[in-house]
UniProtKB/TrEMBL annotation:
This is GNAT family N-acetyltransferase. It comes from the Bacteria. InterPro entries: Acyl_CoA_acyltransferase, GNAT_dom, MshD_Acetyltransferase. Residues 3-172 form the N-acetyltransferase domain. It comes from Chitinophaga rhizophila.
Length: 172
């Protein structure tokens, strides 16, 4: 296995749509209605929407590859692009997803390291994210890499409002 990470460009929009929808389904389909999942995907994973996000000055995507296959990605937001304003010194990891076939193979860790390194190099003082309160696997991972809870917010899938735990890491 030869995992590599690179920053995404507009040419990667279709690949982001594909990996975004696939990994969202893998992560949440068992816990939500089919209608809710399809509603979320139809509103968030189509090429024009991803191109808009790729072209947003406050957002950047990184893709994880195994050879030429996209196996995961992360989306980072700063400034006004953050889903909830956290100040000019904060960077948000809005999404970090890996194909289920690669769980436990350090791909999530590589994407997390990429986000943290990006934040440090850009001079951000803290990095934050929201994670569904029922996603024990992700919560354990974020705790392991040094994130601590600091609040909650609502994340809506279809007609279901779910609670996300907001977690942060102060960067030295």
């Amino acid at each position: 296995m030869n995992i590599r990470i690179r920053q995404a460009s507009a040419e990667d929009a279709a690949a982001i749509v594909k990996i975004g929808a696939a990994t969202f389904i893998e992560a949440f389909a068992a816990f939500n209605t089919t209608e809710g999942i399809q509603d979320y995907i139809s509103k968030n994973f189509y090429e024009e929407k991803i191109l808009e996000e790729l072209n947003c000055p406050g957002s950047v995507f990184f893709l994880a590859f195994d050879a030429d296959t996209v196996i995961g990605y992360t989306k980072l937001n700063t400034g006004d692009a953050q889903t909830e304003p956290q100040g000019a010194d904060a960077l948000e990891i809005e999404r970090i997803y890996v194909s289920a076939a690669y769980y436990g193979k350090a791909v999530g860790q590589l994407l997390m390291d990429t986000g943290i390194n990006y934040a440090r190099q850009a001079g951000y003082r803290r990095i934050w994210l929201g994670v569904w309160e029922e996603n024990q696997r992700a919560l354990a991972f974020y705790r392991k890499v040094g994130f601590v809870p600091f609040g909650t917010h609502v994340f809506t899938i279809g007609k279901s409002d779910q609670t996300d735990i907001m977690m942060q890491q102060i960067l030295a």
